[in-house]
Amino acid sequence: MSSKISLADKTAAYREPWTGLDRTSPYAVEDKVSKFPVEVVLEKDVCKELRTYWKAHGYFYIRNQQGLGSKRGTADYTIVHDGRTVFVEAKATKGKQSPHQIEFQAELEAVGGSYYLVRSVKDFISEWEAARIGGRRIDGGL
User: Which domains occur in the chain, in start order?
Assistant: First the structure.
C-alpha cells in the first residue's frame, strides 16, 4: 500500500468569506522546505478578489492601465474610501515589483502618499486597518 498522498489531496478547497470564491488552485505546488503544498495564486485572481471586495464594501476604485503617456510603474489600482486615497499594487504569490514600480512607490511615499503591495484581500484589509488606526502591520508587510 502506497503512502504517497496526491497533490489533489493536499490542496483542500477553501473559500474566502468576503468573496465566496473557490481558492483551490490547479497551480498548487509543494514547498521544498516544508513539504506542504503552497498555493500559487495568479495576479489576475488577486485583482478579481480585490475588485469583488471593494464593490461589496463601497470602495471607489480605478484600474490604472499602462499606455502611451502614462507614468511607468503606476500601481494597478487607485482606491478611495472614507476620505482616503491609496494606490494598490496586486502581485501573484511569487510576483515581484519591477524597478519602475519600486521607483513609483518611493516617489509617492516621499510626498506622503499611500501605497500597498498586496497578494490577497487579507493583505489589503491588514494594511487598510493598520493605516486607519495609525499603526504599522505587525508582520512587516510583504
Answer: 43-132 (3.40.1350.10)
The span from the CA of 128 to the CA of 134, in Å, is: 10
Average pLDDT over residues 93-104: 94
- Inform me whether the pLDDT recorded for 94 exceeds 70: yes
pTM, two decimals, is: 0.68
Q: Is 107 helix (H, G, I), strand (E, B) or coil?
A: helix
The number of residues in the chain equals: 142
The pLDDT of residue 82 is above 50: yes
Query: What does the alpha-carbon distance between residue 125 and residue 121 come to, in Å, rounded to a whole number?
Result: 6
* Cell 501573484, residue located: 92
**Three-state SS for 124?**
helix
CA 120-129-134 angle, to 5 degrees, is 135
